[in-house]
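The instructor's notes for this session suggest beginning with a concrete chain rather than abstract definitions. Hand out the sequence below and ask the class to guess, before any prediction is shown, which regions might be ordered.
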Amino acid sequence: MNCGEIHIARLSAWAPGIENAGEWDEWAQGKREMRCGPESPEIAFTDSMFRRRLSQIAKMTIQVVHNLLPLGEDTKMIFLSFRGELLKQFKINKMQIEDGSLMPAVFSFSVFNAPPALASMAMGLKGGYTALYPGNNAFAAGLAAAAAMLYKETAEELVFIYADEEVPQEYAGFFSVCPPPLAFSLLLTRKPGIGSVPVPINKGETSPEDFLRSILLSFSPG
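After discussion, reveal the predicted structure:
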């Protein structure tokens, strides 16, 4: 598959410390940094009771999907994450160790596919989703899987979502630097259009941050 066969028609991204398109351009150019922290998008378009128990990764996922798709859309989604609902999983492990019990409601919000499922619920999406965990943190492999799925489906468009939340302090020792919370979504299409950019699928391994930076620079007129 060559890189010209899949294009990005639109994108949306969210991270703490970056609030608008101009700041994303600054980040892509190395003039601004993402922040590590617990901040989440407000997702004020959802019901207050619905969003009350949502995690950072769930809120970020809902926000970037909301920015990309209209309510009730039937476009299929591919969700990729390296750590998933890490904080909720940590709390579950702690609860089991300290209390020897587990609340069903806590578990239901902690599963790996919770963020795309909650995004579907929040927006009434009808296209369904697939959740992927790429082995060895291979972001390029996950992106290639999404591209292959687009060609397998009869639809001409597909939404690719990447999201990872803040790492709890208890796990900080596993990382040389703090991996900042980040989510972005891409509307992938088989038909290039005005302003779309090709997806560099077979350009070797890359991190989600480096991939997003290259795409933002491709979209930027400068």
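Then share the key points. The chain has one domain: 3-84+111-219. The chain has eight helices and six strands.
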